[in-house]
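Lab notebook page, bench 4
Experiment: in silico fold of construct C2
Operator: M.H.
Input chain length: 224 residues
Purpose: comparison with the prior construct
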Amino acid sequence: MPLSQRAAILVNAIADRLEPSTRSSNPSLACSSSCSPYATPMTLGAFQERLPARVRFVGTQALYLPNSDTIVLPATTILADATPRSENNLVDCGLLLHEYIHWSGHPSRLNRCTLLAGDDDLDYAFEEIVAELGSVFLLAALGLASTPSEWHANYIKHWLRPFRSDPRFLFLAAEFAYLATNYLLRTAHRNRERLPSVPNSQSCDQVAAVSAIRRVAQPKEQCH
């Protein structure tokens, strides 16, 4: 199944958990590449080995630090391959992949406009939705989880609140998440085959779409 079609099925599954009426009628995401760039899924371990990300296991929080271009995961994180994987293990894998999606948005890679959000609450919320959807897509692409779990839906529902739970933001974020997922998988597979690197670019149409749809978002409250 093409990656874009698989991603569309997954995001619709999440939409059904949030509100059944938000399901998209589109059979696949309208992204630049409609085909999966790989024939055989790789393991999570191989995926990590083939991406040049700096990952540290320390503390109790999972986060991505753009300034040092570093992914930080809790010291208790368990990523070792196991069959079947436990619920806690899948959560840890999802955390790692969530941070990889943030990593993909670095200016030296996809240069995603919402990654360096600063004090913009809407950009920050949107970036979190992108990262969580990308985690869902990667879990499926790597053969770890074929359907999104309840924690994915709850996390996304939380970050949709600044947008008044408008489902258009969910499907727009899915476009960004698809691009990030595709970029990471292509990079990993090209590194395996020692092929030329993946171009570092984000769709200008996507950026324009974000600017347009954010205009209908709930404005920030004024401090008095």
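Observations: The chain has a mean pLDDT of 76. The longest strand covers residues 54-57.
Next step: discuss at group meeting.
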